């Protein structure tokens, strides 16, 4: 059997999902939220060696240059890589949105990103006009700076509003989802519009979930780790997912999720762990209003 350099068998193939704009996205990737800029090149290089081909970054993370350096040194075909970045909260006005994406492309060393997202709706900022920002992303796609466009942290009302006002459905809505926070209304609205759910913080930020007895029992049953079970659950739900780790061995562990599947009962047992709003680890998008200076 041939192996990746990480020692993983090459049959651990990442499934591909077709989005509503008929483009395709690897269902699994690596996220770099909270990866320090100085470590990002090493983390992304490790991920690419292990076999990850989808990288999820953001202007707000401050580490696009590290992603770009890793992409450059990997020397992979551009067509084999999928790169997402996100609009920072201080760049929502349409002219600034365009300039910000050009700056991102420069840091990433790319001509276009595969996916560009509005990071947060900020309904209490910019006169609540996230539709103007969405219109700016539509124009950036038309200008060829992003192959696909989408949103992140959009609540049902925000999604309904931009679709009603522009007629353009985002390709994805990237939202917080993990066993303690099912985020059901946002997931259902995303699906109703024909957009795809991308799940952020699939490990609940490495907190209590990974020692929950339901998850540890399922993990034991499959000879897998709790993190692998939490990640497999997202894949079985059809979500696009990109766990983050700064540790190479965890990047490898998190990639070894394509050789098992959860049963219907196990999927239901994980869904039953939902704590509703109290399971949320990040900010509530209805009130989150932080703008970097
Ligand atoms: P680290 O980067 O030190 O490995 P989320 O994606 O839900 O935000 O979770 C990310 C957190 O989970 C990080 O703190 C990360 O820590 C930790 N983490 C990533 N992979 C694993 C794993 N396989 N087992 C346990 N914790 C993990």
Give a structural overview:
By secondary structure, the protein is of the alpha/beta class. 38% of the residues lie in helices and 14% in strands. The chain has ten helices and ten strands. The protein has helices at residues 37-50, 64-74, 94-108, 130-142, 156-166, 184-192, 213-222, 226-236, 248-255, 264-271, and strands at 16-18, 24-26, 30-31, 54-56, 82-87, 113-118, 146-152, 172-176, 196-200, 240-241. The strands form two sheets. Strands 3-4-5-6-7-8-9-10 form an eight-stranded parallel beta sheet. Strand 4 (54-56), helix 2 (64-74) and strand 5 form a beta-alpha-beta unit. Helix 2 runs parallel beside helix 3 (94-108) and helix 7 packs across helix 8 (226-236). It is globular, with a radius of gyration of 18 Å. The protein binds adenosine-2'-5'-diphosphate. Adenosine-2'-5'-diphosphate is lined by residues 201-206, 210, 227, 243-247, 250, 253-254.
Keywords:
single chain; 293 residues; alpha/beta; TIM Barrel; eight-stranded parallel sheet; two-stranded antiparallel ribbon; 10 helices; 14% strand
Helix content: 25-40%
Average pLDDT over all residues: 95
Can you identify the CATH superfamily? NADP-dependent oxidoreductase domain
Give the names of the bound compounds. Answer: adenosine-2'-5'-diphosphate
């Amino acid at each position: 059997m041939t192996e990746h350099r990480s020692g993983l068998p090459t049959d651990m193939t990442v499934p591909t999902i077709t989005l509503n704009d008929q483009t395709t996205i690897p269902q699994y990737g690596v996220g770099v939220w909270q990866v320090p800029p100085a470590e990002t090149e090493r983390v992304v290089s490790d991920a690419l060696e292990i076999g990850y081909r989808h990288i999820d970054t953001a202007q707000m993370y401050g580490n696009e240059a590290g992603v770009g350096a890793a992409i450059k040194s990997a020397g992979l075909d551009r067509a084999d890589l999928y790169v997402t970045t996100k609009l920072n909260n201080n760049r929502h006005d349409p002219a600034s949105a365009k300039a910000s994406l050009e700056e991102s492309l420069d840091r990433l060393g790319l001509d276009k990103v595969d996916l560009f997202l509005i990071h947060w709706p900020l309904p209490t900022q910019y006169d609540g006009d996230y539709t103007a920002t969405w219109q700016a992303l539509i124009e950036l796609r038309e200008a060829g700076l992003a192959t696909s466009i989408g949103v992140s942290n959009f609540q049902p009302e925000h999604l309904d509003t931009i679709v009603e006002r522009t007629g353009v459905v985002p390709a994805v809505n990237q939202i917080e989802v993990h066993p303690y926070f099912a985020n059901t209304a946002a997931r259902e609205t995303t699906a109703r519009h024909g957009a795809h759910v991308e799940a952020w913080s699939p490990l609940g930020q490495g907190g209590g979930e990974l020692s929950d007895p339901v998850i540890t029992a399922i993990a034991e049953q499959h000879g897998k780790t709790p993190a692998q079970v939490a990640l497999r659950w997202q894949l079985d739900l059809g979500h696009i997912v990109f766990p983050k780790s700064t540790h190479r061995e965890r990047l490898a562990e998190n990639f070894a999720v394509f050789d098992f599947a959860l049963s219907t009962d196990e999927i239901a047992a994980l869904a039953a762990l939902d704590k509703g709003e109290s399971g949320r680890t990040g900010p509530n998008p209805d009130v989150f209003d932080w703008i970097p200076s």
